[in-house]
Structures are given as structure tokens and as C-alpha cells.
Write a structure and sequence with these properties.
Two copies of one chain form a homodimer. Chain A has 553 residues and is an alpha/beta fold. In chain A, 29% of the residues lie in helices and 26% in strands. In chain A, helix 1 packs parallel to helix 8. The first copy, chain A, is globular.
Chain lengths: 553, 553
Amino acid sequence: MEHLVIIGGGAGGATAAAKARRTKPAIKITMIEAGKYISYAACGLPYYIGGEIKEISKIILRSPRDFKDLYNINVLIEHKVEEVYPAKKQLLIRDLIKEETFNISYDKLIIATGSILATPGIEGVNLKNIFSLRSVSDAQNILKVITETKPKKAVIIGGGVIAMEMVESFTKRGVEVTVIEREPQILLNFDPEIANQVKIYLERQGVKVLTGCSVKEFRGNSVNEVEAVITDEGELEAQLVLLATGIRPNVKLAERAGIFLGTTGAIKVNERMETNIKDIYAAGDCVESTHIITGSSTWAPLGSVANKQGRVAGENVAGGKAIFRGVLNSMIAKVFNFTVARTGLSEKEALQLGYNIVSGLVVASDKSHYYPDRKDITIKLIGERKTNRLLGAQIVGEGVVDKRIDVVVAALTKGMTVEEFINLDLCYAPPYAMAIDAVLVAGNVLLSQIYEDLGVITPVELKYRLERGENLLLVDVRTDKERRRSRLPDQYFIPHYELEKRYNELPKDKELILYCYQGKRSLQGLKTLKRLGFKQVKSLEGGLKLWPYEVIQ
Amino acid sequence: MEHLVIIGGGAGGATAAAKARRTKPAIKITMIEAGKYISYAACGLPYYIGGEIKEISKIILRSPRDFKDLYNINVLIEHKVEEVYPAKKQLLIRDLIKEETFNISYDKLIIATGSILATPGIEGVNLKNIFSLRSVSDAQNILKVITETKPKKAVIIGGGVIAMEMVESFTKRGVEVTVIEREPQILLNFDPEIANQVKIYLERQGVKVLTGCSVKEFRGNSVNEVEAVITDEGELEAQLVLLATGIRPNVKLAERAGIFLGTTGAIKVNERMETNIKDIYAAGDCVESTHIITGSSTWAPLGSVANKQGRVAGENVAGGKAIFRGVLNSMIAKVFNFTVARTGLSEKEALQLGYNIVSGLVVASDKSHYYPDRKDITIKLIGERKTNRLLGAQIVGEGVVDKRIDVVVAALTKGMTVEEFINLDLCYAPPYAMAIDAVLVAGNVLLSQIYEDLGVITPVELKYRLERGENLLLVDVRTDKERRRSRLPDQYFIPHYELEKRYNELPKDKELILYCYQGKRSLQGLKTLKRLGFKQVKSLEGGLKLWPYEVIQ
């Protein structure tokens, strides 16, 4: 009987195994997992630590016994595949308990080895009470430390999505949290003004967030427990440290077997999830995907992607014709009562890829403005000027974010134009949306930017052009009182109400960028200057309020 | 100066006026409204009556004064346009207060006369405390009766979306509610098994729902207040009656002016919102729209549609090039903690239009199954067998419905196939979805139905084929005990565990429909019979549990 072997029992592997069985009852299936658990919901671990999920068993979906009983699939846990020999169609396997090795043969193979922690090479990283969160055991160990030693202060190294979720979990357990991010912003997949809103929100919840800050060393006490994190900006007390510094695809095994990696460093597969070697498929965090908008390779190590890829690999390995169509790098995180989500290209990414873009940023209500408990959300849409096509969205706020971002996901998947987008016949009743949904309001703003070219410049674009050394002159049009608090590195200061008489102080042959607090007075000033014959003048979108970079104080 | 006149100050008219002004500052704009209020959120009225919205002013978005101050638009309230003279470009207007008429000229005209109540011709319909809910005054009058006379019992005539919303409002005010619907199901835009879930839910909330029941007469007391509703099934006490029997487009004025109506009886417009007469546009409840899937005309009198059409008419009348692309008859209603929503074609509609369809019905979790407060939702997707295209969706339940239905809206708008749909890279984190979102789970089921043809028949299809007189034989495969409670009008009864030995009792040359309680045993039985050589055998989807029609008791 044909033998299908699956390496890895995580989301990708377990889904592939179950789907292969449903597709073809008459094959032998073996799943091999190095860890103790298979088929658990890794994304649920923060909620176990936070206490929303009381029992770890809730997030372990299936046991090896279940796989045998339900699907007639043999599972070897605590067994590690050490080598793949494609020519012989054999695997060298080590039993991690008995410390013995043996060979087995396969007819078809699915590699679902997932990802591994990119451990930072920092002194003291092996001290006690420094954790990563990659497995059920990690979660259990972290919770044990919290409940038994009652740490006062925790430091999370890294400012990505997992870090954001864990901030909430630690805080709920009564631990004071500091987040340390090496880059100038948290949530690097987001544009800075969106990420900055999360930072401000976290700070309002009493969380300290240090960006542009590097960890030098972890210091331990006499019993080798961490007691402090030494950064280039000073020392932080910490009885608990979480390393959320990033992961990379776990591909060493595949690489040694001659399986090609792609430009991202993850395994290269076609849309059937086949590798370059016949009868070897791969799925989950160890593979790279095609970006639906750019067509290039991207690495999207997420449970939702792994599940879809696992289904496709499992169906095809059993003779099916399923296709995995790629990703949009869609991402969402809950941070207390705040939600932050993205899909498609950010402005940063789009600019780097050379797209000629416009962006529409609005703050709008998630429900009808008169409906109780309505909340604001901030929506940023990115569109391509030439094609009028929607390229991406980021949404953040206390209101309902998830529904709007998923509408954009569907729109991006089919290459929808902004003009088609604003026509969407979304469902409307006051408890669910405004008559024109918030995301369509953002679409309307974006379309005006495309058609009318209001002369708005985003913080990201301004920063980008300043860094390229372009000769832009910044003009503060606020009041003297506002200016004394903080300002941008500007060249001129003329309050908006004086522009009409003092415009001669400004050069007409240079590009001027007006800014105020929110972007309204600067837009008004722009109109005034245009009327007075200025050709190259722009208004900074969102003003100083949404400016996510440094200011002069 | 060019003069734009807008007839009607509701959602369509007010939006058109504001958009026209933003598009073209240098025109004169006049808006004429027969009622007292303009630009109010009619969809908010149930929540004012229910008490969620405390002050009526919250749902009045703009006053005539606001329109003057903000947009320089002249508004005449309590003025009725009595005739349109396209040849002279004149309007005959009646001042409803002074009871005087006068003429004004227009260069461009937008007709936004909305809809009117289709008052049922029932004896006693003019008794006191019988209301419809069409205006701010209606809402105020209803609330006055509730607070001043404290009615014990209310009857709502009609079982559409407004009726559903008002059930909640009345109940919250402590009034006992009975809903009377003439047709065999409430929510006629939905398939019966979905509508039936709402009925069952309402009944659990203590609301009486009478379907297939006609009102004969309203009986009044000595002071002409309603005291009873006489139906063909008996008499119901009622101190308050709401007529929610439906509306029709308000088109008499347009018709007399020579403006063409479409097949739906509403004004026919092109995608620029132009009528057949030059310089006359129309928008809102008085016009018909193109259905994005079928391409034929449909009437979609909803605030969201009126707003979009108003924008398009307002922009174009001022020289713009906006396009309204049509509707999907998307609809959503909140009924206590239940949400019911639809978009695209229902199964009923698709069958009537001759589509060869498959349907996928699943009950799935709105969040990860281990996340607190997760709730189930029922999702029904309709797909076309030939093209593999998604045609429609209906979703109902206590979980998050609105986000999933809007994803389907975007998918339908671009003609997405089921196979593209299941690949959607929707955002995933445990508080927002399962790793494979519930709506994609439904997509997966639908795709299996298309590819594998499991031999399932839906209640709608079975009913449809029985009514056409097709020779189908129903087989009950439940136990004797279950059968004694209730059954379908079947021809055979063989418990599933006896099929193997008693299959000879069944004819092989007829089409057999097996049914059980939930659809599992009948699907098992189907497989058994197919193995035994039966070619024409189907299993009833959802079994007796989801059967929304009558049963034999």
C-alpha cells in the first residue's frame, strides 16, 4: 500500500494528514513530530497565559490517539527526522526518548517542519525565566513562573504581533510590562503612523514601549534567574523576559535533501505545494508563498496560511488538483480593546517597490454615529495612481476592525479598483455600520486623492523624500503657542492667518510642505498659496498629531 | 447662475445635494421636501423607539439651517412638488402650510421622492394606535403611545426586516409582541430554513410568530382605539399595531412627467443615475437598480443604496463622471442578540432563475473554538455548478455575522469562483476567527458538493420539486420512536440500520430521498444504497431538524 509520510504535526502537517486521508482512504499515512504535542493551536497560547483559556487541553485539537481512531493515521511523537534521502525515498529517524535511529520508506512526502526562533545572540540569554513562546511547554513554563514566583516586571524583546498579544496576557496576570523594539517603530509590517497609534494606546494602558532601543545583556541573580535587562538606554528590572524577536523557516533538513529554497530563505513550492523534487510536497511556516499583488515571493508564517496550504498539499498528494493561490500578508492582533490589522501593501512597501501611490487616511465610526457604543477606527487605504487599483489597507482602533480588513482582502484578491470598491453593496443596518461603511468612506477619500490630487503628502512619503535628500522646505502654519511645544525640522514659520500677507517670505521655486496640528489649516494654507501663484506646495496629512517620527522639542 | 433642484430631502436627496455642492461651488441649489425633516436617518427610528437612542435629534443629521450654512443650499420643507414640466423646465410647488402654489425653474433636476407605504386595505386600518414607521413623527407618535398608555400587547403586521427590528424595540419597552405574516415564512428574501431559524429564535424570546396568517379586520373600542386584530386564525388582543406590510416606490410625480419606469415599477435610470429625460436624474428608493449577478432590474430601497446613488447623481449633475454599479440585495438585521444577513441570490431565487446550483450549509464558530464567548453561526452559500461561481450567501446566528456577509459581498461583486473564495487570505487571530474562517469552511463544503456531488438535496429544492409534481419517494431512515413524534409525507420507513437487509423493499427505478433528523444517518444510508446498486438516491440536507415546512404529526 502506498505510504505517505508527513514530517511535522503542527497546523500545516496535521491539516495535510487529515485532508489526505479524506481524499484517499486506501493509503498508509504516518506523521512524525519531534515535539510532545501535535495539532495544537499555537495562536491560542497567549490566551492560555492570559487566562482567557483555562485549560491547555482546549487548544490541543487532536491527540495521536485521535489521529489513529478518526483517520487511521499513525503518529510518532518525540521522533525527529534527521535526513531525507530522495533517491532511495527513505527517511532517517531518531527516537528522541530511546535515542535510537532507524529508517523508513515513503512513496510521497510532505515537509511541514514549521519555523524556529531566531534566538538573539545576547549575553545571558540562557538565564532562567527568559522564555520564547513556541510550544505548549513554553506556555506552561511561563504560566508556572507567573503563578509561582509572581514576577513584578516583565520585558518583552521585540514589537511584533506576538509581543502585542503577550503584553495583554502579562498585564492581565498583574505583571508590569516593558516592550523593547530595536527598530524605530513597533509592528514593522505597518506604516509608522498606524503602529504609532498602537504605541500610544499601549502607553495609555500603562505599558512602557521603548523603540529604537537595543538589548546589550541580560543580568542574572545568584541563582541564575534574570533580574535585569541592560539596554543601550539603561537598565530595566525584570523577573521575566519574553523573546519575541522573530522566527525563521525551519529548512535545514529540506536543504540537505536538495530541496530548493526561494529568495525568502523558505522552501520554494509551486501552487500545488510541490517542491522541486518529485513526490515531495511542503506546507506551512517552512515554505514561501506568492504575494497576490506583487507576484513575488513572500514568507507568511501564520496559522491561517499553514492550514490552507496543508489542505492543498494533503489533497494533491492523494491525487487531487487543489491550488494555493498565495497571500496578502493579512495580519490582525488584539491588544486589550484595540485591534490592529493589515492586508496587501503598506505605503512603505509600495514606495519601496516603486508604485506610484496615493493614500487615504480617515477616522470614521464603526457603527451609525447615533448608535450606542459606536467607536472610531482609523483606516488607511493605499491605491495605485495609474491603474486606480486598491493595493492595501491598515485599520486600527477600538471599533470593529476585523470586518473591514477582510472586505479589503476579498477586494485585493480580485484586483478591485477604488471606484469598484466604493460601490460595494455592503450590508447596512445601524448596529453594524454607517449607511456608507467606514471603509468605503476611506475609499471615497482615496478616490478624491486620485482624481483631484489635493496636494496632500503622507508622513511616510515626506520622511522617505527627506531621507533621499530632496530639497523640501517645511512651513509651520500653526500658532506661536503651539510651536513652542514641539515642531518639525522646518525652515519657515508663518501662522496660517498671516499667509495672505506674508507669502512673499516664501520661495516660489522650491517645493513647500505646510504642516499644522491635524492637517486642516495646512490644507487651507495650501489653497491660499496656490491661489497666490505657488505651484509646488503640499500639505502634511494628519499634521503633527499623526506624525510618527521624531520632533524638535 | 445654473439652478439645480432636488425633490426630496431623504437619504438620496440630501446626499445628492451635498455632493453636488462639493463638486461644483458655482451653482444655485434648492432642495424641496414635503415633510418637516430632511436628512434624517430613517434606519435609526427603531432604535429611538427601543430606547437605545435617547434623543430624536441624534438621528437628524442636518437641519435646513445646516444646509444653508454648510453648503449654501436652500431648503424648502413642507413644500410639495405637484408637477414637473420637463419641456419648460419648471416645477409646480405647493406650500403645505400656506396652501399656496407657485412655479420655479430648474436647469438640472434630481428626483429623490423615496418610497411610500403600501397600506393594506383592511377594515379598521385607520383606528387610533395603528401606525406605520416611515417618518420622525411616526416614531414620536409610537413612543408617545407606549409611554403614555402603556400598551400590554402589540401586533406587527408583516415579517420583513423592519418588523424584526421593531419586535426588539417593542419588547424592550415591555410590550408583548405578535408578528403576523401572510406568507408561509417570515423574511421572504431569505430561504425558508434560514428564516425559520429566526422564527425559532424569536419564539424563544417569547415573541409569537404567526406565518401563513391573514388579517381580516382591526376592531376598535368605543373611542376608536384599536383593541383587537381579527385574523383568519382567530382574534388577537392589541393596544398597538404596527403596519410593516411593505412599501413601494413613490413615482406618481415622475410618471406624470413622462419619466420611464422600469419592470419593477420604480424609475428607470442608467448607471449615471440619468432618467430618460435630459437633465433629470433620480436616486434613492424611487429608482430601480441593476442586480450585479443577474444583470436584471431589482428594487433595493435601502439607506446604503440611496446614499451611494445620491452621491453619484449629485456628482454627475455637477459635471462629474461617477457610476453606480448596481446592487446585490444585501441586507442585515439585528434581532435581539441574533443577526440575520443575506447577499446575492438565495436558493429560491437561483432556482426560479434557472441556475443549476449547489448549496453548502454549515454551522461553524465565529471565533477560534477555544476562545471565550465564541458563538455559532449558520452559513448557507449558493454556488453555480457549471461555472463554479459563488452566487449568494445567507448567514444567521448569535455569533459575528456581519463581517462574513460583507466578505461575500466583495467576492460576488467581482464574480469570484468558490475555488478562489476558499483561498482568501482573511485575517486570523483567535479572537476574530478560526484559522480557516467559518465562511471559508462553508466554501470548502460547497466546493466538495460541486466536485464530489455527495448526493445531497436541500429542503428548498425538495419542496420545489415536490410542488412541480415530480415523482420522488421519501424514505424515513430514523427509528420508530423518532417517527412517532413527526415525519415528512413519506412513502417508506426503514431504519438506517435495517437498510442493508431490507433494501429490496425499495424500488430501484425511482428517485429516492432519504431523511433522518440531522442528515447524517441519511447520508450514511445513501452510501449503503449506492453500494447496493441504487442509482437515484439523495439525502435531505439538515434532515427534519432544518426542515422549514410543515410536517405530519
